[in-house]
Amino acid sequence: MDSDRTAPEPAAEESSLTRRSLLRKAGLTAAVGGAGAVLGARTASGATEGGQMGSASSAEMIAMHTVNHGGPTFRAQGMVDNSFNGFDPTEILRDFDWGRTSKLPNGQTLREWDVNAIDKDIEVAPGVKFPAWTFDGRVPGRTLRAKEGERLRINFGNGSAHPHTMHFHGIHPADMDGIAGLGAGLIHPGERTVYEFEAEPFGLHLFHCHAEPLAEHIARGMYGTMIIDPKAGRPAADEMVMVQAGYNTNFDGLGNQLYFVNGIPFCYMHVPVKVKKDQLVRLYLTNLLEYDPINSFHLHGNFFDYYPTGTRLEPSEFTDTISQVQGQRGILEMRFPHPGKYMFHAHKTEFAELGWMGFFEVEE
Q1: Any bridge partners for residue 196, and if so which?
Q2: Integer distance in angstroms from the first to the last C-alpha of the chain?
Q3: What confidence score (pLDDT) does residue 330 get?
Q4: Looking at residue 78, what DSSP letter applies?
Q5: Domains of the chain: residue spans and CATH
């Protein structure tokens, strides 16, 4: 083991909950300005062979978050069950999977992973289950990490009830593209295949299922991150990954009812991300949000250097807010000169109110 560390048909109005109707129903005002939120969601079961949803039964949850003049606080009607989900968003932050390594006859390093598609219910809010399609039983999938110039091999098995693929952003041969009609094409339930290519270019990349209907496969949770480090490495830092996305709990393809980073809405409000004062923090930020055209990241009380896609070693800007469309990603580097709690969130108020917000807690 390597130890290196550097749209479906809309549902009827009476049975559908939209994010805007939820906000109106709650009489909600901006959470980042100091208000409470009442969120509604639905759970659904019974996906058909083609991926379309059958009947859905509704479930409601309440998550109230407040910001007062004495300092930020968060209270909710319980937290999700990480043991039920089988993953913890706090652990996902710094969980980099270097795979297994061996040497090829030409001396090149071969880095290898086993990845499996799994259908799994995820508790996305207290008492609210979402029937996810996943890589290895978690949303997002693992963060695969390698070094520029290595040979990468991903052994993919489909344990889901639906056809899937793995499509990697990066440079690779056409038959390794993970789409229908090329190479192994669609990987059907019970089948396996191997994706193999060179680790290039260095930077921050992602992978996702590319089976039809593509929007649903991504919205159900089939995505993950791949980091390829430059040969010379990067300066030492407290490194973490954040994957932006959402849950369309109505299964109507018209938008999302919950938003998040690393799988669970509001998770970093409950458990702030702890960092050290003056230490370099490197954040690998990707956007896999479906059904909304754009996402964003805003940091309170600080600025960061931004490296789009991470394929250049010079930052493009020094800022506190960036936008990303689906599939875009970038590296953020920052130092916190003052201790305390600093909020981060989507600079789209609606997304923040419905889960995409958290805190960095800076310690001496």
Answers
A1: 153
A2: 34
A3: 98
A4: -
A5: 13-41+60-74+237-363 (2.60.40.420), 83-229 (2.60.40.420)
pLDDT tens track for 172-193: 999 999 999 999 999 999 999 9
Question: What is the spatial distance between Cα 72 and Cα 361, in angstroms, rounded to a whole number?
Answer: 11
Q: What is the CA radius of gyration of the chain?
A: 20
Whole-number Å distance between alpha carbons of 171 and 168: 8
Q: What is the DSSP string of 148-199?
A: TT-EEEEEEEE-SSS-B--EESS---GGGS--TTSTT-SB-TT-EEEEEEE-
Cα(214)–Cα(178) distance, rounded to whole angstroms? 12
**DSSP 8-state secondary structure symbol assigned to residue 93:** H
Euclidean distance between CA atoms 55 and 41, whole angstroms: 15
Single pTM value for the model: 0.83
| C-beta of residue 199 within 8 angstroms of C-beta of residue 176 | no
Rounded to an integer, the average pLDDT of 198-215 is: 98
Long-range pairs, 18-24, Cβ under 8 A, ≥24 = 18/250, 18/254, 18/255, 18/257, 19/255, 19/256, 19/257, 19/350, 19/354, 20/350, 22/257, 22/354, 23/350, 23/353
For the record, the structure tokens of 258 come out as: 């919950």
Token pair in block for residue 313: 């070693």
